[in-house]
Amino acid sequence: MQNFQLYEHASTVPAKCYDRQKWQKGYQSLKQEFNYWIDDIEGEIPPNLQGTLFRNGPGLLDINGQKLHHPFDGDGMICAFTFTNGKAYFQNRFVRTKGFLEEQKAGKILYRGVFGTQKPGGWLANAFDLKVKNIANTNVIYWGKKLLALWEAAEPHLLNPNNLATLGMEYFDRVLKEGDAFAAHPRLDPNCEWDDGKPRLVNFSIKPGLSTTITIYELDESGKIVQRHAHSVPGFAFIHDFVITPNYCILFQNPVAFNPLPFVFGWQGAGQSIKFNPKEPTRIIIIPRHANTSISEVKILETQSGFVFHHANAFEQDNEIYIDSVCYESLPTVDPNSDYQETDFDALSPGQLWRFVVNLNEQTVRREMLESRCCEFPWVHPAKVGRLHRYLYLGAAHAASGNAPLQAILKIDQVSGERQLWSAAPEGFVSEPVFVPATDAVNEDDGWLMTLVYDSAHHRSDLVILDARNLHQKPVARLHLKHHVPYGLHGSFTPEVFEINHFSI
Predict the structure, then answer these.
(1) Across-strand partners of 313?
(2) What is the pTM of this model?
């Protein structure tokens, strides 16, 4: 077993604690599909940790050597870690989308990407080609006995949870139509007050234009859509995430505009044609989940200009709605001639954690910064979704100030104000932390944090399991993979332990 050193405490690493060339190596494609028992482990997997961690993200950053312009255009690759009896089994598999199969057969890029990937041949080869490739690369959830790979601009792909094989598209008993969007950030209401306390999955879709249609979906435990309602809001909306409370769905309409002409004429991708307007306010859209809430119509309130990709949570208290979100001063641009691997972190403003407090009676919004450290990918205990939470977990920069790659996991105690930081710097780069409650949990932070860490020193990835109660301790376990996994996006954990079916590579 190779010795693997990561710095456990932030104080042991200098402030400038990353090397951009080492960070870049995590953006190499992983073209192989694996399945094996993980036998290179530091520490010990908790014997009462049973279930499956699923992760999704772009696994291909090139097509037969033709580099994609941005990772967000990469084909989705699902990773699964199955925990049973103190052991862990790993497998990864690409989602066999229509576009993936076509491009693998052709050996070249056939589709334009939302974030700037173009077909070979210059603008003439791309002009008026508005086909969208469903890349299924953003999130993966297990709900209603179905494993779903999600990408916000199209319908989900249905997967076999045993071996990750792609089974087809999921339309929820034809409620969705071909090409309908189903966002990549569903929220799981652990205790729906309008359904006898049963859990529900709540999700949304947007259809942007001069006005934008927002559709809310609610799915029961069986995976059936039991509620759907659509609402029109003024203006173009680019919305990636949302939050819920027992009574409301809350979305932030970022102050952006879309000019379709550069996209239509093949000069750049659709995402590159979205421009941030710092002179316009951010709008907070409040949509009632049920007809008999305190408001029966959509409310839109304004706050200071900023951009939000991800929210941590929301809750209702004292007739106000509290929303914790990671905010940026503006939307970073993806220029046609830029190279994402040459990102100048120092030139960009960091994402920071803010709290917004909405008073519907007074039609006001106030805000305060909760955390100035550069952070992203927030997470709370799943039982606290839509409810008052004490602890927040985030991917974070190692240094307390400035912008940088995510190299640490940050825990914030919103009662005591205490911060705990576990750092993988200088060689390690972390992913989204997933909180898994312990089966015998008493307190809100009884459980584990799981994060996939790219180890640039060995060009491999490790699944790091932390004791969520105390991040100052060394990891409970580090599971060393035999290879790297490209930087991913989102994932989820289910207590289900699926039958392990090997597949042919």
Answers:
(1) 324
(2) 0.94
